[in-house]
Amino acid sequence: MARRVAIIQGHPDPAGGHFGHALADAYAEGALAAGHAVERIEVARLDLPLLRTQADFETGTPPDSVRAAQETLRRAEHWVLIYPLWLGAMPALLKGFLEQVCRPGFAFRYVERGFPEKLLKGRSARIVVTMGMPAFAYRWWFGAHSLRSLERNILGFIGIGPIRETLIGGVGALDAARAAAWLERMRALGREAR
User: Fold this and answer.
1) Does the structure show a pLDDT above 90 at 87?
2) pLDDT at 103
3) Cis peptide leading into 134, omega within 30 of 0?
């Protein structure tokens, strides 16, 4: 069954050309070939001020670029977030994007008593993280804490699930054959829209 997919390219370099960009292209190729609808959000190309106050987060008016991204994400049944690991976490620009997008009224709603209502239920996600270190070191030695926080404290908090992950380590040392294998893996995941 065809799905609506939103690919969030979280690399902060607006020039592109990184392996994460190639991964996003491959995922989109696979998804489109299988008949899925694909929309892309290039975080590095957005007008994206940082939130600085609770009042702005809760009641401020998001910039037009953020509102457009929210509409893309509202339409999507499956989100794909692709980013490099920087200092053990997602780049600051991607975190700023998620803070802008996941505001009350769009992503969740405060309730009188109890936990906030999750407004984005029924959507799934795949997180693709590239890194210089081996992926097993990030997962087992460092505990993948930033990835767990994204899954539980951001995506899970707003209702996204299931959430799957793909960790690609040693990116700087990938030879052409291993890079091609990862790109083919992304095309396959795109065809499945998962």
Assistant:
1) yes
2) 97
3) no
